[in-house]
Amino acid sequence: MSAVYDYAAGLLRALYDRHLHGGAVLDTAAFPDAARFAAAWPAIRAEALDVARDLPRVPRFHDIMREQADISANDARDWRMFIMQAYGQPFPRNLLRCPTVATLVAESPDVLSASLSFLAPGKHIPPHRGPFRGILRGYLVLSMPKRADGSPAAVLKIDRREYRLDEGRFLLWDDTFEHEVWNDSDEVRIVLLLDIRRRDMPRALTWLSDAVIRIVRLGIRIRGGTIPV
């Protein structure tokens, strides 16, 4: 990541860390709509598999955000992101391809971002931390390769704990804790990633979060408000 991005992210994390003391993984009660997304996972999976038919046209994460090159372009394997909404900025053409996701997002005002994440066989996303504790990460497994013993082959490691999640499982977590991912298989792993507005904060942090979200959304619009398909 760029030095400026790293510095700004560090300052932002430090400010939130003074006031928020919860762990890395949260109860889904903090996001009541989690159950609705999890219940719809077969339909979302079907939409994701349809997108995957044209996977080479889906951009790699570092094609969208150059600041993420050190975790996306760290090896010769792809991490592709099909972004349908980012910080409240919708991308209508992509949403049209995933009507189930589009409906759920429209009915869930706390969902700011929604993306399909395609992790290539053998891909490793090295340890890193998200910049902004004012949002939570929703992680819904859609297509999970299996090991010989039938257990999930892709691993999400958060704050030194490994999670091997089966299809249909929803995890709510704080991505400012160090995390990494690897796909120890010869198949693509697919998950739905959500950015969810955090509600369990002091009022001053809520105001700050609202300001950060507006600034990021404005930046997306200035860049053209478009995401390649």
Outline:
This protein is an alpha+beta fold and 229 residues long. The protein has helices spanning 3-17, 34-39, 41-52, 61-64, 69-72, 92-97, 99-106, 203-222; strands at residues 25-26, 79-86, 89-90, 111-119, 124-128, 135-143, 154-158, 161-163, 170-173, 179-183, 189-197. The chain has 8 helices and 11 strands.
The helical percent reads 25-40%
**Straight-line N-to-C gap:** 24 Å
Sheet with the most strands: spatial strand order: 1-9-6-11-4-2-3
Largest sheet: 7 strands, antiparallel
Query: What is the H/E string?
Result: HEHHHHEEHHEEEEEEEEH
Helix/sheet category: alpha+beta
Please compute the radius of gyration using only Cα atoms: 17 Å
Instruction: Using the alpha-carbon principal axes, give the shape.
Output: globular
Number-wise, the strands total 11
Annotation field: number of helices? 8
Could you name the ranges where pLDDT drops below 50 across 5 or more consecutive residues? none
How much strand?
25-35%
Provide mean pLDDT, rounded. 90
Features of this protein?
single chain; 229 residues; alpha+beta; 27% strand; 11 strands; four-stranded antiparallel sheet
Topology, please?
Blueprint: H1 3-17, E1 25-26, H2 34-39, H3 41-52, H4 61-64, H5 69-72, E2 79-86, E3 89-90, H6 92-97, H7 99-106, E4 111-119, E5 124-128, E6 135-143, E7 154-158, E8 161-163, E9 170-173, E10 179-183, E11 189-197, H8 203-222
Antiparallel strand pairs: 1-9, 2-3, 2-4, 4-11, 5-10, 6-9, 6-11, 7-8, 7-10
